[in-house]
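# nightly structure sweep
# worker-07 picked up a monomer target from the shared queue
# config: single-sequence mode, recycle default, output format = structure tokens
# input follows
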Amino acid sequence: MTEIGKIERPDVAGYRNKKKIYFVRNLYLPKNATEKFREIFYRYWHEAEEHLMKLEAAGKVSKIFCESIYMSGEESLKVLGAMNTHLEQIVKKRTDAGAAFLPLEDEEIFGAYIDWSNCLMIARTPKVHETIHGFLDDTIRARFEHIRSVLREKIGEGETGLLIMREEDRQLLEPHDDMEFFFITPPAYDDLLKYIRDRNHIGKEFWRT
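# output follows
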């Protein structure tokens, strides 16, 4: 797995015939975000696009996948725009150039994942919390089994995919051995983490609205 922390052209020779995935950490803008948070957030997406453009020297993106997306066509872009207009622009630029924006999630599994996650947040008694957690763990396993199968089946030899997902979810992914991951880490990402630590913000404010 390769971490891209500088805007440089990668050494492409060893990767041309491999399945490649460019991984962009998905960040969400809290409704109560400060002006400083917003400034770093916007800079993050600008820098992420710059890094992507440099990385595409190793292979143009032909398949795009984003967490939460189980629909296809125009509907998927509308949902993406409601989530994050900056991310929508990154995706649309590549679909306009011929890339396919494909569903990553299974609708039923993803719906269950959201429902169990919401239930866990309001559970009060230990027994109920334990029971819900068990159902949630089973759903998480099913979710990532599905995601792995999508990436394996939809990205062909020598093709390049773009994957947008939260970092904590990506850590559960366990990609197949024939896939080479390139992690895009713009300077603004570290700046945002430092800002959150300094402000004593809770983690989920950073990741979710």
